[in-house]
Design brief:
The structure is a homodimer. The first copy, chain A, is α+β, with helices and mostly antiparallel strands. An eight-stranded mixed sheet of chain A has the order 7-11-12-17-16-15-14-13. In chain A, a hairpin with a 7-residue loop joins strand 3 and strand 4. The radius of gyration of chain A is 27 Å and the shape is elongated. Chains A and B meet through strand 2, helix 3, strand 7, strand 8 and strand 9 of A and strand 2, helix 3, strand 7, strand 8 and strand 9 of B. Chains A, B: Belongs to the class-II aminoacyl-tRNA synthetase family.
Chain lengths: 463, 463
């Protein structure tokens, strides 16, 4: 018998004798002298139907073949007379491999809430929705690598444990071999690394090392925030993609961001059509329109100053009410409501806002000639808001030093980062994209816990 | 001007007018009324040579164009009359973008020791050797993803922060928002996750969740060991690849391991020929022979018990001396000297040892019918020793429970792992391969610090 996966069986070109299908039972229906068994093996969303006739080898086990049971079926792949399926399996023998007790198995045919499924994250990929989600997640990761490799970018594994708290983005987790539950202070001098250590919040500074040696590079790895906020958009552990390009300015950076998003959407629609359709049908009816826009519309490129003007002009609704909760003026960081107004209502397509006030942005962003703004950019998409944030980096040693001093950062910590400017400095630029944000964008799922295999949030560390 | 990368220029099919080359100067030689400038942009190992004639725009900056300086050259791509290079650039203009002070720039033309280069890990990818290394690392990661995707495996991001210390492999780092340097005990109840948290040592248990739902899966992510050992083969942070297959036994697992190694070697030899040649020439003269063997020889499959017999027969050298430092008897864990004898001297090719004594292996490995051995396997390759370790997993709930009790492990911690056996259990198998070990294997580099962008070892947390 030749084992084939359900995906291969369902896309067969012709009937086949002597195949073996291994998988888990999704449903079983008993007929007169036979049973229909729907089998899924995780290779695709669809099940394959097997017809098992009474008296076949294994028939005696049929009472124990219920939802969730693992079975192996030998048979023929034949054209299905039924609707909605081209192929089915006519069984010659069935083996029950692993039973699933119908009283205690948590995944019965009824629909389960996302909350409940989070409590059984070890079983939820066996459902249609989460099976589809994690197949899409896998393919999206592949598409990221393929996009960059096709463009001759090199993949860099930036370190996860870091000794610098100068990455400049949010609260960090400590990494230690000391036990804080022990009484008495324990010195970092005696810790594993001989100094304070933390989990990285960004691979950017490392990416800059490699951009200024290998040219175009990217990181794609886990990053961490110890922020004690329980929101649907924040997780303590998430994956981030950070390209970095030498000999590149803010405009090249915007080009890359736009191409990247278009590529990912196109790739996933092509390679995950069946799984994507589940989300368009059951999770977000506007999903296809959003993805059409990302794929086909030219992204608006909007200086921050003009964005503020637009927001000010639209501060009141037609009915004269305040449109925004947070007041708008030049110098503010855009709030989600502002971003969503620009991309969803004003332009109705993706918008790249650039040249932000220096005071709301990080020290490493390149100072513009106006002395007031830096060459930062955020890509905003409908429904999601900010999906990409990046900048051209300050490549001028003296300007960077002045910024570090101005912001009161510990200059000595940056010695190697300065060296990149001291020796053969070049204009360079890059951005970061949260991988989970991307998955929320392409599926319409609104809770980050539902796009991560084992999500980590405050007080949640199961599985 | 159209910027092209050095790699593209050197593989041009025909001459081109109006190109721009951006990169860093590796060497400059002054002639009479002109200068040769060798430029590297990280896109490949080779430099491209530019001829800059006296009086061209930018010529006045030439005294400041030294090793390490960043330059941009406009010119024509023309056939080179020189030896060893097909193309060169005849400059029309040169711009000095970033100077590198020749007194203080650490990377001068002379050869530097690996030790020294580790102290400037932010600059070492600008050398030939480390540029080649990190291009190979990038391509190897791509090859890993491509191998699995071509075979319909799904990529799973297993969690980095874990609440279970039951992954069963070595010392773990703690993850906390407490500060152990503070006096007084701090309770884990009040920590970020409300319980003890650690950095993962393996994604296997998570991979089993997804193998028993999506079918064939793999993880590829960072893993951590807090072992305070300073050896050339150990790092505190390293990347690991862990495939896991449902409906698969130890033999299918061995097949996959062998195919995987052959594929990776073949892929890298094809796609990184120039970079690999550097290591074969300068780092390890036996490299090509080793890689030939991995690529072309059928791996020996050797039960542990037979391996012990072979070692016992060869316990003495021809001259009657003890061959091994560690005594051999049935039940021992094989030492590196034993593994290397089998693969380098006895068989002279890769060897897969399988069916190890249960007492030296982890609780989750499948018990064989003999009651003494488990379905574990290690792949040994010449010069490197163990490159892959894996097993068929215990899929029988009662046998697994008995093992967990026998080994005194906290059964309640494994409730979800047990569930995978409780509901639709299936035979499944997988293995782990250290990504850095692979890189050491394909380059001949013997210190793990030299295959990682920013290595983490005891008391080393720079960059």
């Amino acid at each position: 018998m030749n084992r084939i996966k359900v995906k291969a069986a369902l896309s067969a070109k012709e009937p086949r004798e002597d195949i073996q299908i291994n998988g888990w039972v999704r449903t079983k229906r008993d007929g007169k002298g036979f049973a229909f068994v729907e089998i899924n093996d995780g290779s695709c969303l669809s099940n394959i139907q097997a017809i098992v006739d009474e008296g076949l080898p294994g028939w005696d086990d049929m009472p124990r073949v219920g939802t969730g049971a693992a079975v192996s079926i030998d048979g023929e792949l034949v054209e299905s007379p039924g609707k909605g399926q081209k192929w089915e399996v006519r069984a010659k023998a069935l083996r029950l491999i692993g039973e699933a007790d119908q009283e205690s198995y948590p995944l019965q045919k009824k629909r389960h809430s996302d909350e409940f499924l989070r409590s059984i994250a070890h079983l939820r990929p066996r459902t249609n929705k989460f099976g589809a989600m994690f197949r899409i997640r896998s393919e999206a990761a592949y598409a990221v690598h393929k996009f960059f490799r096709d463009r001759d970018f090199r993949y860099v594994h930036s370190p996860i444990i870091t000794g610098s708290d100068c990455e400049g983005a949010g609260e960090m987790f400590r990494v230690t071999t000391h036990d804080p539950a022990q009484p008495g202070a324990q010195s970092y001098e005696k810790d594993f690394f001989g100094k304070e250590a933390a989990l990285t919040v960004s691979g950017q500074l490392t990416a800059e090392i490699f951009a200024t040696s290998l040219g175009d590079v990217y990181t794609f790895g886990p990053t961490f925030r110890a922020e004690n906020s329980n929101t649907p958009r924040h997780a303590a552990e998430f994956w981030m993609i950070e390209p970095e390009m030498s000999f590149c300015d803010i405009h090249g950076n915007m080009d890359l961001g736009e191409q990247f998003l278009k590529y990912l959407v196109r790739h996933l629609r092509e390679h995950c059509a069946e799984d994507m359709a589940l989300f368009a049908q059951w999770v977000d009816k506007t999903l296809d329109a959003t993805l059409d826009s990302i794929e086909n519309d030219t992204f608006v490129r909007l200086p921050y100053t003009e964005a503020i003007e637009i927001l000010l002009k639209n501060a009141k609704t037609k009915k004269g009410k305040d449109r925004f909760e947070f007041p708008v003026e030049w110098g503010i960081d855009l709030q989600t409501e502002h971003e969503r107004f620009l991309t969803e209502q004003h332009f109705k397509k993706p918008v790249i806002v650039f040249d932000y006030p220096k005071d709301i942005k990080a020290f490493y962003m390149r100072m513009n000639d106006d002395g007031k703004t830096v060459a930062a950019m955020d890509v905003l998409v409908p429904r999601v808001g900010e999906i990409i944030g990046g900048s051209q980096r300050e490549e001028r040693l003296d300007v960077l030093q002045a910024r570090i001093q101005e912001m009161g950062l510990p200059e000595e910590e940056y010695w190697w980062y300065m060296d990149l400017r001291r020796f053969g400095t070049v204009p360079h630029a890059g951005f970061g994209m949260g991988f989970e944000r991307l998955l929320m964008m392409v599926t319409g799922v609104t809770n980050i816990r539902d796009v991560i295999p084992c999500p980590r949030t405050p007080r949640h560390l199961e599985f």
